[in-house]
Amino acid sequence: MEINLISGALGAEIKGVDLKDSSETNWKTINDLLLEHKVLFFRNQNITAEQQINFAKNFGPLEKHVYVKGREEFPEIIRIIKKPDEKHQWGENWHTDVSYNPKPTKVIILRSIKIPPVGGDTMFSNMELAYETLDSELKEKIKDKKAIHSSLGAAAFVEAYKGMEGNGNIDEYSNSHPIVRTHPETGKKILYVNSMYTKRIEGFDENESDEILKKLYAHQERLDLTCRFKWTENAVAIWDNRSTQHQGLSDFFPGRGLGHERVMDRVAIEGDQPI
Question: Of 110, 118, 259, 262, which is least surrounded by CB within 10 A?
Fold first, then answer.
């Protein structure tokens, strides 16, 4: 097995591992690497949908998205599609998946089906490192504080994409989570807010909450906390949704003459309540 770091902050590309092997031994090796590097990348993984699901089940029960309809034959898989004539794609802003849920997603496994010849990379940011590098004054302000995460508008957002289909659910979900959560496996502190779903900090007035969140978001997006992955076909990314944020870059849209389709298969594993 060969491990190549993607950046100084997080991420590693792993060679010599076959994701068709869903054995506990293979999974434990990958899980240990995941806890260390936060996001792992594997190329030339010509796996089937069944094999993607089988490997994912090692992490725990699979999660169905609250708004997006899964594939007919594999409801656990969301097929993420950006059509050639669409300017935007699903998940293009910095976020942590479904942080509005009471138990947000634990791990994501994303497999490339069709990629554009240029652009469409995915960026990740290390939220453990974001907390570690936060200035002491801001750390003190958010100590023991909670923030409200909401799915407001998310259901309609899905329908805005031609290749994506909602599951009919239009309910709004809102939950309060610690701004600094503790990773259940490593015990590390994580900065747990994101600009897509976090709405306000409890215990502060609107102006102060907005000011603090704006500073936290800017800090989370610092380039020295990130890594960037260039997709190839049959590549797989596995990331810890508890300790990272991510965004899919929309830099291949028609306005630049780059009208290409991007297709990915996503499987998610149920998480735990942040504490």
Answer: 118
